[in-house]
C-alpha cells in the first residue's frame, strides 16, 4: 500500500498553506509562497511546525496565512467538458 494513502487513512489530508509575506527591506511588496503537505485538521501540526521554522530561520515577515485542505479520502472524479470556448 502506498505510504501517502496510508497517511490519508490515518486521518491526514492534503493541506495547502498559502503564505503571504514581505521582506523587511521591502515592506510594500507582498509575495506569496504555497506549501503542501499531508496534515491533520483542525490542529495542523505540520503546518504549525513549518511556520515556526519560517519565523525562526527566514528573514521574510509573514503577513498572513491561509490554510485549506481536502476533506475525506474519496475516489477521483472526472468530468467531461464538451467545449471550453472558442478563439476568434
Describe the structure.
This protein is an alpha+beta fold and 88 residues long. It has one domain. 23% of the residues lie in helices and 39% in strands. It is built from two helices and three strands. The chain has helices spanning 3-9, 45-57, and strands at residues 13-23, 26-39, 61-69.
| Shape verdict | extended
Main sheet summary: 3 strands, antiparallel
Helix segment tally: 2
Quaternary structure state of the chains depicted: single chain
- How far apart the termini lie comes to 49 Å
Beta-strand proportion: 35-45%
What is the topology, as strand order, of the major beta sheet?
A: 2-1-3
Mean pLDDT score: 85
Based on the model shown, name its key terms.
single chain, 88 residues, alpha+beta
Short structural description:
The protein is of the alpha+beta class and 88 residues long. It has two helices and three strands, in the order H-E-E-H-E. Helices cover 23% and strands 39% of the residues.
Topology overview:
Blueprint: H1 3-9, E1 13-23, E2 26-39, H2 45-57, E3 61-69
Antiparallel strand pairs: 1-2, 1-3
